[in-house]
Amino acid sequence: MGLDLKHVTKRFGKFTAVNELSLSIPEKEMFGFLGANGAGKTTTFRMILGLLDPSAGSISWDGKPIDYSTSNIVGYLPEERGLYPKLKVKDQIVYLARLRGMHKQEALKELDYWLDRFRVPEYADKKVEELSKGNQQKIQFVAAVVHKPKLLILDEPFSGLDPVNVELLKEAVIDLKEAGTTIVFSSHRMEHVEEMCEHLCIMHKGVPVVHGSLRGIKRSFGKKNLVIHADFDTGFLADYHGVTKSKRTPEGIHLQITGEEVAGQILQDIVGKGFIRKFAIEEPSLNDIFIEKVGASYE
Known about the structure:
- The chain is α/β, with parallel strands linked by helices.
- The protein has helices spanning about 40-50, 90-100, 105-115, 135-145, 165-180, 190-195, 215-220, 260-270, 285-295; strands spanning about 5-10, 15-25, 30-35, 55-60, 65, 75, 150-155, 180-185, 200-205, 205-215, 225-230, 245-250, 250-255, 275-280.
- It has nine helices and 14 strands.
């Protein structure tokens, strides 16, 4: 079953933040939710959590309406972090876990597991305000998962983390998915979504502009990338028939082309001009697709 959104709309006065959004997110899957700032992602998350009521449409989990009373099956990592700075980490986590119906001992056991896993066992007795931003974020993540939710919503989970901690958190998220949690996450970082998600949705001004499996979206985009590194000037290829975009690099040129046959023609034309170190056709990146569909790069 999983999470089901049908024609979900949210208006604030005359402004429509989310417009007729329909999505099905299967159980035990990781789903990527993309969109520039103001696209309607956080508003959608707040409706799934029962913090905001939709103006129209319905949201259900396993066929039952989702609302504030189902909050104990949901975990949420908000984009703006919200821990109590003066509380000790363990008091903070126990308090939040008990709100979700857990016993204190069970919560402390889970906390120990996560602190060990994130390599910070000594943080249990530290105040939240004594931790670095990255480590506060780990604790915020623990707060979102301590009660073993069936549905986990992560709003920009990796922002502000160094590469080592990004890897730690990514592994944790993948393990939760393997263990059966349904995960919806939004990210500014296309490569994270590409690496981790089977299905995704790109929102633009409250409307889904791309929705489906990552593989299908890439296939239907129709364009490919061609990377050429050569010891001669490749600049003339920018105006080549079938080239839709080009970018010069120190090693050569990156082209966006309309299909593989264009690559064949280009190869015929450059063989014999000099040494070709690299000639590679690559799938379009999610970034390429995003920029084309939304018409704007990320902040």
